């Protein structure tokens, strides 16, 4: 399947840093990725739209809103707007620890580009979408892991109930 191969490519390309891990517990099936915060959405199934604006008001950078609540199993269509007139921003759905570790890794490699199923990078004034199903209860994060941005406030919380 093309999509599975695509996901495997991501695992090899560094998806491990992005809240994804290869899951090979079932020997009858090819290795597939699992994500800490849920799974990529299905465009044929219903979803709720949540708009998130990413921007900056010196010295702070932010998401608005920066806290969202979803039901377990709910599918969310994130409409992401980078309202910043200068900078790229990204939106990475993962656990707090994964985002923290990923931000640290990006300090050594600030030009990493992320457009995996759980992540989107947007240029200044660009809009994008990310479809996601939250299959696990708990607290997750969206974070911009471009060096300095998380520290300046670009981190949000997802509570899955
Ligand atoms: Cu940013």
Characterization of the model:
It is a single chain. The chain contains two helices and twelve strands; from the N terminus they run H-E-E-E-E-E-E-E-E-H-E-E-E-E. The chain has a single domain (36-160), classed as Cupredoxins -  blue copper proteins (Immunoglobulin-like, Sandwich), CATH 2.60.40.420. By secondary structure, it is of the alpha+beta class. 16% of the residues lie in helices and 41% in strands. A hairpin with an 8-residue loop joins strand 1 (20-23) and strand 2 (32-35). Copper (II) ion binds at residues 61, 89, 144, 146, 149, 154.
Protein topology:
Elements: H1 2-13, E1 20-23, E2 32-35, E3 39-40, E4 48-57, E5 60-64, E6 67-70, E7 75-82, E8 89-94, H2 96-108, E9 119-122, E10 127-133, E11 138-143, E12 155-160
Parallel strand pairs: 4-7, 6-12
Antiparallel strand pairs: 1-2, 3-10, 4-5, 7-10, 8-9, 8-11, 11-12
The chain binds copper (II) ion.
Residues 61, 89, 144, 146, 149, 154 line the site of copper (II) ion (CU).
């Amino acid at each position: 399947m093309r999509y599975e191969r695509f996901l495997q490519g991501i695992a090899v390309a560094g998806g491990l840093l992005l809240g994804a891990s290869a899951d090979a517990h079932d020997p009858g099936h090819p290795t597939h990725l699992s994500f800490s915060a849920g799974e990529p959405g299905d465009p044929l199934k219903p979803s709720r739209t949540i708009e998130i604006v990413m921007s900056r008001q010196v010295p702070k950078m932010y998401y608005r809103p920066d806290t969202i609540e979803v039901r377990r199993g709910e599918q969310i269509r994130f409409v992401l707007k980078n309202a910043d007139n200068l900078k790229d921003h990204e939106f990475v759905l993962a656990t707090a620890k994964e985002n923290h570790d990923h931000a640290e890794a990006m300090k050594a490699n600030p030009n990493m580009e992320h457009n995996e199923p759980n992540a989107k990078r947007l240029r200044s004034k660009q809009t994008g979408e990310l479809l996601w199903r939250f299959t696990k209860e708990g607290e997750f994060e969206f974070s911009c892991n471009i060096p300095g941005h998380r520290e300046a406030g670009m981190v949000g919380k997802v509570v899955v109930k």
